[in-house]
Amino acid sequence: MSEKKPDVSRESAVLEKLRGRIKQVIIGQDRLIDRILIAVLCDGHLLLEGVPGLAKTLAVKATARAIKADFKRIQFTPDLLPADLVGTMVFNPKSGNFSPRKGPVFTNLLLADEINRAPAKVQSALLEAMQERQVTIGENSYPLEKLFLVMATQNPIEQEGTYPLPEAQVDRFLMKVRVDYPERAEEMRIIAERPEHKLDSLKPIVSAGDLLKARGGVEKVYVDERIRNYVLDIVAASRNPEEHGLELKGLISYGVSPRGAIHLLLVSRARAFIEGRGYVMPEDVKDVALDVLRHRLIITYEAEAEEMTSDDIVKKLLEGVKVP
């Protein structure tokens, strides 16, 4: 993999500036910040899962403030309608005509707070906009912004009044990131400094155009053939674990789709890029595999009975597949 190492340090410098600006508000949660940056680079969407109070919403707000771009937030509730999200046709009594009123989905960064509290029709309307990058209002379709990123949050501990996202729809998200508690030293800084108070004074440091240019830098990141085969081996092992010497029989209902393989390789390249490295290493693949694959593996009732999660299965895949 050393025969070709493009220099991407200049292109990735904009991400380092953005990361530094976000860290003025977010203490700790470095993994979450990096995943947000990767999602921006990959033109993908994030599903953030964690208990309340872990700075999920604050991290998204800080990212929006640090980027000179439009930002909107929607609090998903059971009474929300698709029109509240995408917009609707409004009658003008003076002209006697209907005109479109665009909804909050027409923005650069959209925070969908507690997405699992909205009914299926609203979830489908958002996920369609994420996939097609356009919204149909009346008889016309309207394209969304080139920089369009949905960061959705969901609370895993509540069951009442929630509408879990179907597996096929969750697959539309580039990554599903589990946000955990901060370290003790980090939490001491949080309670001492109250960094959320700095949010209002946070100034933009990069523009949407800067980030769109940075996406071109990701395409320069070199991927060796052995890395491509490593990604395909992980994906293939999720479908037929016995053929790869893994004792996971009866634990996986459905393995990772080709979309998952594409996203795993893409996110690995983006991870190398934000590290200022012009080539992908196996460590990049292993670092992002959980976030890319955990929502793309459908485990069986037998696995649940053994108290195994999709995270456990992905870890076993990474342990069992030979590293190049």
Task: Report on the architecture of this protein.
The protein is of the alpha/beta class and about 325 residues long. The chain has two domains: about 25-215, Rossmann fold (3-Layer(aba) Sandwich), CATH 3.40.50; about 220-320, Magnesium chelatase subunit I, C-Terminal domain (Helicase, Ruva Protein, domain 3), CATH 1.10.8.80. The chain contains 13 helices and 13 strands. The chain has a five-stranded parallel beta sheet. The protein has a two-stranded parallel sheet with strand order 2-11. Helix 11 runs antiparallel to helix 13. The model has no long low-confidence stretch (mean pLDDT about 90).
Helix content: 40-55%
Strand composition percent = 15-25%
By DSSP, the count of extended strands is: 13
Structural class: alpha/beta
Mean pLDDT: 88
Q: CATH superfamily of the largest domain, called what?
A: P-loop containing nucleotide triphosphate hydrolases
> With helices defined by DSSP (H or I, 4 residues minimum), what is the helix count?
13
Query: Major sheet, described briefly?
Result: 5 strands, parallel
* CATH domain fold name of the largest domain: Rossmann fold
Per the principal axes of the C-alpha atoms, what is the gross shape? Answer: globular
